[in-house]
Design brief:
alpha/beta; eight-stranded mixed β-sheet; 134 residues; binds zinc ion; globular
Amino acid sequence: MSGVWAVCVDFIDALNEAARSTYPDEFICLHRAHNGIIDEFVMLPGSVFGETHSFINYWMDPIDYERTGSAHSHPGYSAEASEDDLQVFRSTGGVHFITCLPYDRTSWRVYNSAGERISLDLVYEDGTKVEPEE
Ligand code: ZN
């Protein structure tokens, strides 16, 4: 996704919070970016939670703003993309977050549409970098 270089720590915290409250089901949403920073949830119409990735149908619906990708949670300790995940990533483009237990600031990964792990800076709302916690 062109121009995306960072993710807002508030987005990661909110993703993990949603993941916790949806556990043991998966939480799924889309997101969008401002100034290259992913910072906003885009909730799916009639959000689908659960084992299946049927949200792809919603993705294909035309929505009148730019979406930068998806984010979802895994109810386990692996944020490894599954075969189903990879298929969704490939067919939708953008960048894709997966967070896993224990749903903290280090338990997430982000992939590109080819399913390759990429890195994004973790930043505050004003764009300053979040230093890793000790
Ligand atoms: Zn998954």
